[in-house]
Give the backbone structure.
Amino acid sequence: MTSPETTATPSAPEHLTPGQAWQRMADGNDRFVANSPEHPHQDSDRRSLLAGGQEPVAALFGCADSRLAAEIIFDVGLGDLFVVRNAGQVVGDTVIASLEYAVSVLNVPLIVVLGHDSCGAVATAIESMTSTAPPGSRFLGDLVEMIVPSVRRATIDLEPGAVLDPRSVGKLHIEASVETLVGRSALVATAIAEGRLAVVGANYDLANGRVDRSVVIGRL
Ligand SMILES: [Zn+2]
């Protein structure tokens, strides 16, 4: 017998491919953007069904910003997403471990790495390049430091005299988060190589709610 965590739920009879999982996420986001959400899987029947196990459609690693409420913006419900979030979606050891759990135990076929425009963590990283003020704490400083390489990359790409665009830093940071995850986790890289997993980097637009895919590692 398998443990409860590995038991497929009756509501998820099929195992989705990475492409099917992304399509389901994209369809949910389309409903959210169009203001026609179905709010699926949010009742007591679903709760009861899931008590014995979970088989989420995907794992989502995103910024902790309160406006990026994962189940809402993808119009899904209980048991649909395995969610890991922190400020600025910076990839650290516990993040990698959590996502490896989702891949190796829950067999998710997709990891979505989700950043967004006007990210406070990205803005703080940009400000840190010119500010002499110390960070609020060692922990805050460490987090911001993990975004600074993307600020440096965006600065190198700047035309002379041009002003740094936070959106370009955010886009580079999403790509860097994806690359760091795949580069550091042999488990994730192996699952991608075997076609069992894809990792998608995407940006969430705070104003219109649209999730735009910007980078894919693996086959969708
Ligand atoms: Zn953010």
